Structures are given as structure tokens and as C-alpha cells.
Amino acid sequence: MKKRGFIIHNSKRYEYEIDEQGFVWLLIEPGKTNIGQIKPVNSHSDIEKILHEMLDGGGY
After folding, report:
1. Cys staple from 15: which of 4, 27, 31, 34, with CB 3.0 to 4.6 Å?
2. Which class for 16: exposed (0-12), middle (13-18), buried (19 or more C-beta within 10 A)?
3. What separation in angstroms does the CA of 8 have from each of 15, 19, 38, 48?
4. What DSSP designation does 43 have?
5. Distance (Å, rounded) from C-alpha 28 to C-alpha 34?
6. Spatial distance between the Cα atoms of 22 and 19, rounded to a whole number of angstroms
7. Tens of pLDDT along 25-46?
8. Rounded to 10 degrees, what is the CA torsion of 33, 19, 48, 15?
9. CA-CA distance, 52 to 60, in Å (whole number)?
10. Domains of the chain: which residue ranges?
11. Strand (E) or helix (H) holding 14
């Protein structure tokens, strides 16, 4: 089961997808990335925290 959504980070909208194994993928053109995620997410609050950490770590 894949889940898609979006997050606002530094006034920009970023799309994301959670795969069947629970990994969060940022959908950034031209592809997608999961900048450094090493374990699956467990809750909605984890998703938001991980996404902000990914975007900060990636310089977005």
C-alpha cells in the first residue's frame, strides 16, 4: 500500500510517497529520494519529522 501526501517546508510544497515497507520518498524532479532514511516510519508525526529532516539535510 503506497500513501502519498505533501508537506510545506520553507514556504515550498514538497510531495512525498510512503512505500509498502514504510520508507518515505521525497518526489523531487527529476526523480525521488529518501535522503538518509534507515528505518521505516511508525506514525504520522514520524513522517513529518523525517520529511523536515530530509529537506534540511538536503539543503532545501
Report:
1. 27
2. buried
3. 9, 20, 23, 10
4. S
5. 10
6. 5
7. 888 877 777 776 767 777 666 7
8. 60
9. 9
10. 3-57
11. strand 12-18
